[in-house]
Design brief:
The chain is 49% helix and 4% strand. By secondary structure, the chain is mostly helical. The chain has a domain of 74 residues: Orthogonal Bundle (Arc Repressor Mutant, subunit A), CATH 1.10.10.10.
Length: 138
């Protein structure tokens, strides 16, 4: 699978991996060396370095240099594009769910009420039935 080139896709690609999310959690407590980052994981140092490269290319971490020490540092501002995208879509999705609630409420208000189903709103789950199934076949 080719790695995406747009910034938002790189962020989500980086966040999709549980190891990389754990690295971000670890870095949230402060800078750490590659060796310190690698300690809790049962994987090779090159594998950890590859995860760090993905996080760095996504703009979520930065490798600084102090002499020979190259600590990794969390860049929280790297999540800005993802936060904006999520917030934009969250409000759109919430609006659609609100519209669906209105439609279901309207349908429920219009539905004829009979004594047997007066408490069953439109859109609610009906009781499970075994119509057309044979329990001996299961």
């Amino acid at each position: 699978m080719p790695i995406a080139t747009d910034p938002l896709s790189r962020i989500f690609f980086a966040l999709a991996d549980p190891t990389r999310r754990a690295v971000l959690d670890q870095l949230s407590t402060g800078p750490a060396s590659v060796n310190d980052i690698a300690k809790p994981f049962a994987m090779s140092r090159p594998a950890i370095s590859q995860h760090l490269r993905v996080l760095e290319e996504a703009g979520l971490i930065e490798r600084t240099r102090t002499g020979q020490f190259r600590p990794c540092v969390l860049r929280p501002e790297g999540l800005t594009d993802a936060e904006q995208w999520i917030e934009q879509h969250r409000s759109r999705w919430q609006s659609r769910f609100d519209q669906l609630d209105d439609v279901l409420r309207e349908l429920n208000d219009r539905a004829p009420k009979s004594p047997g189903d007066a408490n069953t709103p439109v859109g609610s789950k009906m009781p499970d039935t075994d119509v057309g199934t044979n329990e001996e076949e299961s």
